[in-house]
Amino acid sequence: MKTISLLLLSACVAFPVFAFDKSAADRFARGEVCEVSVPHAFPEGRIDWLFNPTSAKGPFNPEWTWQLNRMSFWKTLADAYAETRDERYAQAFARQLEGWLDQCGTPPEKGYNGVGSPWRTIEEGLRLMGSWHVAWRAFAPSPAFTPALKERFKASALAQARHLLKHRSGVGNWLLMEMNGVYTFASDFPELPESATMRKESAAALAEAIRAQILPDGMQYELSPDYHSVAIACAAQLYARARETGFENELPPYFRGQLEKMAESVVALTTPALVQPRFNDCFTMHADKMVGRLAPFFTNRADFAWVVSRRAEGRAPEGATASRFLPWAGFAAMRSGWDADATYLCFDVGPLGMAHFHHDKLTFTFWKGDQELVCDDGGGQYDDSQERVYAVNGFDHNVLAVDGLVQCRDQPRRVDKPIEAGWTTTPLRDSAYGVYDQGFGPGMLKLATHMRQIVFDKVADSVTVTDDVASADGAEHAYALLFQLDTTNVVVSAEGTALRARFGRKWDLALKVVEGGTIRTATGQRTPALAGWFVGRNDLTVHPATTVFVSAPRCKDRRFIITLKAVPAGKE
Question: CA within 20 to 30 Å of 457's CA: 345, 366, 388, 485, which one?
């Protein structure tokens, strides 16, 4: 599966202004780096660009070497140099660049996407659109960036651009970064004979990829806000460069409209914390940064300004209600309003997604204000750990288990018509439903059909989850609903039909089983299987949490009714 972290994109695309971080710049100048949350200090500051510390201490993560070769830390060195003109930072960049050129050579024709390769095409694209672009501009005045080293830099960048056009990916977010890298290179070096052709070819390829990947409701087809952000970053940077260089007319007429739809889908899913729900493989994605890449192109959109300013400017989205349904992605965002203390639930009734998917249809995430009370953790690192396996399957989501097995499917990756979810929204009530009738367990056994309806009562400020489960094979089964809570402070009532989860903040969660089963919990469990873990991405570490099981005796059919409500902390 092709993967990417947003570490580079968040630092280097669209060039937002950050405060100068001297301590980080000094570490990077000394060759002290951190990739996928694993730090390493290279002796004497000499970076070995083919090294991977996870090979020795595990769990093995090939992303460490790949992401090292994105040189995301050059942006920090560039910020430091721009702020201080301290030649130590330019000298560190020059030393690292020269070492990379000496060690890595030129792009190979075969094996470039293999484990340990510095020439994976996603890295080439990210370098050209990000760290190399920034470094070329920032360090140009420094004597450390000698004419000879500049020529080597330019020659390598040209070789990478050629390599990307020849070996571009066919689909997905990789293609977006590859083509954006080529376009950025061609814009940076318009004097080269190939630049005009490269610019037009890469622009056409990226525009067509955006047209193919963005669903009619504005969501990128991998159905992860993380990778939707990648699409936004690539499209926004290319559009900005086209406008800056006077080549906007080379882009197809539909391109600008796609950008606006992409921003609209971010707004639609934004939680009261102004982040996106962590569906599928996903960091905690900040809506203001995502929309902020596109808002400058749509100054008439007061709702975009409202999100970018974190409610300080513009105005909240308008409409009959604050709730939204994306019928192609399958995300139903229910909310009491757009205020910072609103109640919010996002329900997933959609397809798998084209990549980076989890086995989690009918899962949901539930918020009160900036607290996530029923969670989705985003799937962990792209390593070979048991936590990663756990994080992408149903045991780490808010779904149904049948005979100890959770859902497993390989289709559909996308839908060819809007999803029928019974979506209704009024000022008093939101409602949607979804059905899972595919396989359970590695054998994709057709054991049961699961229909879930979620109703948000805005007057009572409570959520009712109704799950109707029916045997698909005529046999009796043991059914259990799973709910994930990012806390270890959970108290279950004596009768086993209610719980109070405390988070040490403003709000607690009250969960009540009205019908169908009784509660048990697991926290930080490793045997006989993992349960009760929050498996965070780069910004959130793996730590014990709680899995709530609402279990029923063996039967053919079962209805569960569960209510969820945020209650003030400390009040019974």
Answer: 485
Q: Which residues pair with 491 in a beta bridge?
A: 500
34 phi and psi angles, rounded to 5 deg: -145, 115
- Amino acid identity, residue 43? P
Can you give 512-553 as a three-state secondary structure string? EEEECCEEEEEECECCCCCECEECCCCCCCCEECEEEEEECC
Residue-wise pLDDT for 62-86, tens only, equals 999 999 999 999 999 999 999 999 9
What is the Cα–Cα distance from 125 to 182, expressed in whole angstroms? 7
Q: How far apart are CA 241 and CA 127, in angstroms?
A: 16
- The string of pLDDT tens digits covering residues 376-399 is 999 999 999 999 999 999 999 999
What's the CA gap between 30 and 157, in Å, rounded?
25
**Strand, coil or helix: 119:** coil
Q: Which domains does the chain have, with CATH numbers?
A: 1-142 (1.50.10.100), 156-314 (1.50.10.100), 325-568 (2.70.98.70)
Q: Residue 560, class by beta-carbon neighbours within 10 Å (0-12 exposed, 13-18 middle, 19+ buried)?
A: buried
**Strand, coil or helix: 219:** coil
Q: Token match 């940077």: residue?
A: 237
Amino acid at 512: K
Flag whether the pTM goes above 0.85: yes
Closest by Cα among 477, 398, 411 to 439: 411
Rg (the chain; Cα; Å): 25
Residue that has been written with the tokens 């019908």 in this structure: 515
Residues contacting residue 88 through CB under 8 Å, at least 6 positions apart: 29
User: Sign (positive/negative) of CA torsion 375, 547, 506, 430?
Assistant: positive
